[in-house]
Amino acid sequence: MQFSSSLLENAVNEFAKLPGIGKKTALRLVLHLLKQEPAEVGQFSEVIAKMRAEIKFCQRCHNVADGDICSICANSQRKKELICVVENIRDVIAIESTQQFNGTYHVLGGVISPLDGIGPDQLNIEALIQRVEKEQIEELIFALNPNIQGDTTIYYIQKKLQQSSVRVTTIARGIAFGGELEYADEMTLGRSLQNRLPVERYVK
Amino acid sequence: MQFSSSLLENAVNEFAKLPGIGKKTALRLVLHLLKQEPAEVGQFSEVIAKMRAEIKFCQRCHNVADGDICSICANSQRKKELICVVENIRDVIAIESTQQFNGTYHVLGGVISPLDGIGPDQLNIEALIQRVEKEQIEELIFALNPNIQGDTTIYYIQKKLQQSSVRVTTIARGIAFGGELEYADEMTLGRSLQNRLPVERYVK
After folding, report:
1. B-chain residues within 8 Å CB-CB of A52?
2. Is the ipTM of this complex over 0.95?
3. Is the torsion defined by CA of B36, B42, B46, B48 positive or negative?
């Protein structure tokens, strides 16, 4: 792509560094910004820079936060004795969007994956163990992606907590709402048969 | 979508204002930036703001420029007597990418479209007429999208130039009616420049 302005070219190149944004899309976005008022583009640019420079991670749950403690941990309405363990920030947002969970979180920052060189020490696992020991935690709910890495991580943390009286659960595995039985893999279908629910509980 | 950080939320909202970027894509882009070094994100933000604040439009051809005159008009190798008339900056980039054109451009800033309330006065048409009168222009090549608005614009400008001895041509209809210049492959676009037709033959 040939540009007659290096300012334009630099801006397109910066956008094209983002994941899933090619050169043509980058150009479309930059030309859109070019049509906006300078003040609006200034705000766009400022908000992004400010976000990266000032965002913090909650000292308690490792979620993103504006201060030392995130708004979920700081909320006195949330049950502090209930911790939902997730892989990353995106999972927190997904669960919050269901509006079905009133506890707090613990963001691991990944899952144990020896092939990718990620062991327990690279994750916020030790911090979780300490939270369970020091805070009055009643239940840990694992909400990790249902794959080998997720299961390994659950197994590892559960072993570490054997001495503790905390209740350890995981979100239900089964056929997704709107899913097709015939396309479900054998593992999922088999487990959903084993973990079947009385209809009364399913319906409510 | 529920966020535990207003910094994150603001950044996602800014990205989601861009065309074709929804909330989920915006979140993906912001979380990508969150993983980058602050200096890199600072550069991203700075380049965008600088682009909008400092970019200029060429006083001669109305293309984007870093200074008063764009790099194409300033290039002594380009034939000044040959003007390619295009709708917008994107079309300049598309034609430059073919590497088949060695003249200069004139960016109209749109095409005549009464339904959208765009008449000749909203476009850089008067400036084009003046360029033809004052500069030693030998040929105008119209490279407008092949649709009614484009044809109307060609017809209007040709009428205005009837007294002039300038040769008026249009790129060949290698591009399907209703197509968009920016999505044409370089071969088609390049050939359509080589096979341009006099407007008299094009109109009938």
Report:
1. 33-34, 36, 38, 41-42
2. no
3. positive
